[in-house]
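[retry 2/3] Brix domain-containing protein: previous attempt timed out, resubmitting with same input.
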Amino acid sequence: MARKRRKGRSVRRNQNAQGEPEDVIKAPHSFVIHKGLPGGHTLELTKDFRKVMEPFTATSLKERKKNAVKDFVSVAGPLHVTHLTIFSRTELGMYLKIMRLPRGPTLTFKIQNFSLARDVISSLKKQVVVDTAFKTSPLIVLNSFSGEGLHLKMMASMFQNMFPTINLSNVDLNTVRRCVLLNYNPTTKLIDFRHYNIKVAPVGISKGVKKVVQGKVPNLASCHTISDFFAKTSIMSESEAEDDPCNHVTVGQKIRSRGNIGSGKSAIRLTELGPRLTLQLMKIEDGLLDGEVLYHDQIHKTEEEKLEIQKKREMKRKLKQKRKKIQEDNKKNKEKIKQEHKERSLKGMKKETESDIQMKKFAYEMDQTVEDDDDREYYKEEVGEEPDKDMFSSKSSGMKRPAKTFHTSKIKRPRLEDNKRKTNDDKFNKNKFRKGPNNKRNFKNRDPRPIGGKVASAKFERRKMRR
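[retry 2/3] Brix domain-containing protein: success.
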């Protein structure tokens, strides 16, 4: 029995061949693109928002001007994309549209103010950017979204579903490295968007001890002994005085940072990463950028106007279905006509082939009949009697092709007798010298003087006399 073939090293190490884990497939994925007028830092803001949505987003997505929204919707299903975010710019300002794929709803926000991530980081005294924090999804925190109103519930549901859910019973605190904060102001109806980095630091440790714990070399120039360095109460952490007791928590898990003990107290510290956005909800649509308007901040319709709009929308939908049905019927009729034409063409080709065979057979029989008649007349004139029936019967029982030989070369001519055979002497005699001025090969009658005129001929005569 043959041995079973093993998979190669590259095949075994290829993660795409094995498929993605179930939790990755079920996690919400997103596309972040930009549309509209160029300029206004739209592209930079799009890249910063992609950084916020990592790792379940297309970071290096290359969108073009000719790409429409339906192009992204068509590829969203195989890629497990659930949300599409569009930053657009018009003459009136910048807008943010968040839609649920593939059938909506769509939330449209107007961007009142914004700050890029590079501006936020450059304004900090201590800049902290950890690349490993972007390998896991952020924690979403919503504030003041529990008020009355359908639009608040829609916004809260949309923002929560954009990020993966966290199970508090089995969550790993080492994976919670970032936080997205959304604060709604009921008075101004504005939403503040912030993005922070989460750091867990031990509480009650002086600045000197903290340096030693973190593996840094302390400066002992102002200390007489090592005990002075640890006993100094003036040396405290810069953020130790700012810590509020509300920020102190007891960590129940082991944190991958120096100084944190499983049962000890730790402080939660946030460092802003950016970008900053101030949003205002403009409208909520039922469909994907085209549907019934469920909420509008500036335009309010009466019940009669809503009913009229709904009737127009229903008529438009029915007209679209009718046109679609007509197009499908036309397509079926064209395919039917095309199939009938194909069958007629094949039938005509077959009929033409049969008629050609009959014509060839008839022509062959006519040639044989004419040839037999000529032979019979010649025999009758010469002999004076009628020939037998089977004497000149050359008709074959069926249509057979003439026998072909396998000799493709030309037939050789018969060999001549010895007295008629040509030899090399005949060629020599044929090309023998002839007398006369027209014979170029007759060297006897040729003028021996070289070409060159009288001077050359005189030199030739003198040389001839010397000899």
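[retry 2/3] Brix domain-containing protein: DSSP finds twelve helices and eleven strands in the chain.
[retry 2/3] clearing retry counter.
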